[in-house]
Amino acid sequence: MAVACGIAVANLYYNQPLLALMAADLGTSHQVIGLVPTATQVGYALGLLLLVPLGDIIDRRKLILLQSGALMAALAVMALAPYVAVVLAASVAVGVASTIAQQIIPFAAAMADERSRGQVVGIVMSGLLGGILLARTVSGFVGEYFGWRAAYVLGVVLTGLLALAMARLLPRGQGGGAGPRPSYLALLASLGAVARRHPVLVKASLVQATQFWSFSAFWSTLALHLEGPAYGLGADIAGLFGILALVGVLAAPVAGRLADRYGAGAVITVGLAAVGLGFLDFTLVPGIPGLIIGVVLFDFGVQLSMVAHQARIFALEPAARSRINTVFMTTLFTAGAISSAVATVTYAAGGWLALTLSSVAVTAVGLALHLLWRPQA
């Protein structure tokens, strides 16, 4: 499941190092080809909202295999696309189908017992984070030596192998629940009711959204900061900072084990504190060493709180785990999208200091919500 999450989510990020190659091959401008990552993220948001809830009424194994077939088809269209319009449409489809990862996480939580759910979710999340980390590196290498289309051919092959493995290994009958099934529209309409039934879910979504806000703000402006007069470094160096995200891969299973042993609340507190300290480090420690220390701290903190929150919310209502995941992830995705836009304006108006201090403030809000709001499950 961890490997499956990594391979599925990697498809969202293949395009980022390939944009210049795609623009040259398709004969279009960098401005137009720059819409490809946006189209992929829009597709992912649609998949979160429209497909992930289906795990509560359809056998998750069947749903994952159907999405795998759809993802292979979308990747194949990307590899063969003759025009940029086709690339953009296929990018949306890739984003929608890549939500396989968000079907697998509640699937894993459903298979785990109460004592090990945090550890299981942490292991699966480590695979997802590994996919995010390695996708850009792999596609950049393949694109440089074999062309950008080859990266999507590789995606088809990996997804096909993944589908064969999942068809053989995943158990049947997980998801769908007992009793009459609601209609698809009723299922989507019930998302609000799920949130109202579980104020703990609302709290978890809002607290983690503050972390995702800070996370997105940093990565949206790092290249601008490094290219400025203080450093004069290129985008390639900014990309190397992504390697530091390896700490998140290591943090996820650790967070799960700690949540199982000491409770999710304590782990979330530590995670929030680490994020705040990471952004304070950016303001207090000058130069590249300060950036490196800060990235390690805040990425570790984000993953600690993420896995602990997921271990907590997946215990709330077993029959609604997919919808719970939809509410949680859609809240995070929305916060990240807004943050990316706000961060650019903040950085332009007040520079790196304004950006980092605003992130400290948002993290402080999250910490206050976590410590002071005590909703009943």
List the helices and strands and how they pair.
Layout: H1 2-10, H2 19-26, H3 30-33, H4 35-50, H5 60-80, H6 84-97, H7 100-111, H8 117-146, H9 148-169, H10 184-197, H11 199-227, H12 235-240, H13 246-262, H14 264-284, H15 287-313, H16 321-372
Helix pairs in contact: 1-7, 1-8, 1-9, 4-6, 5-6, 5-7, 5-9, 7-8, 7-16, 8-9, 8-13, 8-15, 10-16, 11-15, 11-16, 13-14, 13-15, 14-15, 14-16
Characterize the structure shown.
- Keywords: Membrane, Transmembrane, Transmembrane helix.
- This is MFS transporter.
- InterPro entries: MFS (IPR011701), MFS_dom (IPR020846), MFS_trans_sf (IPR036259).
- The protein has 16 helices and no strands.
- It is an all-alpha fold and 377 residues long.
- The chain folds into two domains: 2-181, Growth Hormone, Chain: A (Up-down Bundle); 194-372, Growth Hormone, Chain: A.
- The longest helix has 52 residues, at 321-372.
- It starts with a helix and ends in a 5-residue tail after the last helix.
- The model has no long low-confidence stretch (mean pLDDT 86).
Structure described in brief:
With 377 residues, this protein is mainly α.
What class, by secondary structure content? mainly alpha
Q: Name the poorly predicted regions.
A: none
Arithmetic mean of pLDDT: 86
CATH architecture of the largest domain: Up-down Bundle
Characterize the main sheet: none
Number of H/I helices: 16
What's the CATH C level of the largest domain? Mainly Alpha
**How many domains make up the 3D coordinates?**
2
State the fourth-level CATH superfamily of the largest domain: MFS general substrate transporter like domains
Number of strands: 0
Please provide the ordered H/E string of secondary-structure elements.
Answer: HHHHHHHHHHHHHHHH
Task: Tell me roughly what share of residues is in helical segments.
Answer: over 70%
Note the overall shape: globular
CATH topology of the largest domain: Growth Hormone, Chain: A
